[in-house]
């Protein structure tokens, strides 16, 4: 049985429950990286949010076909190839491997399908030919092909382009052969770029001459090839709403004469120390840079995903320290509840990933799941998780009762994608005074004798003096509050 999951749809401007076109099978297409350099933490903010989306859908009982493309030919990749005097494929293959390595370090689920633009040239040529036949595109004297924006009445429906002041109107639009542009414009966009001197040996044969596809075309061609009519969710950073996703919609809906994707889900920008990330400002970070500062990828994952995905978050070194402290608490509860229940973390998470335990009751973690499944309200979900684990009295649970805590808790850990087995530094241990140690031992003896009243009184006495006691399977640990 599936439970509702709501995401904010950029197209409708409201949160909507996901209702797949085919039963419980969700087709999810995510715009992937352009592989000309190492992806930075701003890129990964989006990729990680998409990973949590997929995991949350799975926990809700949906089956997800996840497609994430690799852009391995565009203006940037060709410029990098020329700069390094290396073949295009050598450059893109290197950075594809680095991207996959970083995804693995972040504990991201692999997409079932990861198509490359250069492996789908024919599909893109076929789509252009179709649009030419219908009058939605035109070829120019130099062998380039452009999409005729004026032929698509609904152009701008995703970005609300027509509601904004335009620099170029539909009536006097001029062709734009750049892969990316940021101005509010209704200019006709390039679908096939004729071969230029600067392209070197990066070109393919086509009915219009030698050249290569424009950037916007690849996602349309590959999404329709691999998802067919299962076009449910399309996701990317908010910077892709216009022109990339707007152009995808135009060419795709004109090509197939039907709606392209039903749900468009976008992630907000990342600020670093209050400003836009820039190498010039020395605030440009990759996962390698953060790891060199002593923080494992799981800590960076927490910092990048603990904010609401549709709101800009400000990344700071302090946010990493806060993330590390939070993960220590999450791991400690996991260790304690698993120790009492007798379950193993890796086996439990693997089972959850395979669809087991999805029907188990959420129990004390019901509020956390409700918040997570409501447009990925991760901050509220985490707040609810910490409230629940603070109130849990593990020492009073038998293995069966502990398992009823452990299973829903680890469903949330799976959904959030936290690898609690990565090294997370504990705070330095503080030695307790002798009188505190004496109270703790007396409390342990009372607990062993099942004198719960005395045990609770001694626990409260310890708390009043600034200490908390954490029960383990074969003992206890004292920590300052």
3D structure, described in words:
The chain has 481 residues and is α/β, with parallel strands linked by helices. The chain has three domains: 6-267, HUPs (Rossmann fold, 3-Layer(aba) Sandwich), CATH 3.40.50.620; 272-416, Orthogonal Bundle (Isoleucyl-tRNA Synthetase, Domain 1); 434-480, no CATH class. The chain has helices at residues 41-59, 75-84, 88-105, 121-134, 215-227, 241-256, 287-292, 297-305, 317-341, 345-353, 366-372, 378-391, 399-416, 434-448, 452-464; strands spanning 6-9, 14-17, 25-30, 63-68, 137-139, 145-147, 189-194, 211-213, 233-237, 263-267, 270-272, 275-276, 313-315, 467-472, 475-480. The strands form five sheets. It has a four-stranded parallel β-sheet with strand order 4-3-9-10, with helices on both faces. The chain has a four-stranded antiparallel β-sheet with strand order 5-6-7-8. Helix 5 packs across helix 6 (241-256).
Q: What is the H/E string? A: EEEHEHHHEEEEHEHEEEHHEHHHHHHHEE
> In this structure, how is the largest beta sheet organized?
4 strands, parallel
* CATH C-level name of the largest domain: Alpha Beta
Domain count: the total is: 3
Q: Based on DSSP secondary structure assignment, what is the total number of beta strands?
A: 15
Class computed from helices, strands and strand pairing: alpha/beta
Output the strand order for the largest sheet. Answer: 4-3-9-10
Percent helix, as a range, is: 40-55%
What's the end-to-end separation, in Å? Answer: 42 Å
Tell me the CATH topology of the largest domain: Rossmann fold
Mean pLDDT: 92
**Oligomeric state of the chains present here:** single chain
Low-confidence stretches: none
Strand percent estimate: 5-15%
General form:
elongated
CATH architecture of the largest domain: 3-Layer(aba) Sandwich
Number of helices: 15
The CATH homologous superfamily of the largest domain is termed HUPs
Radius of gyration: 26 Å
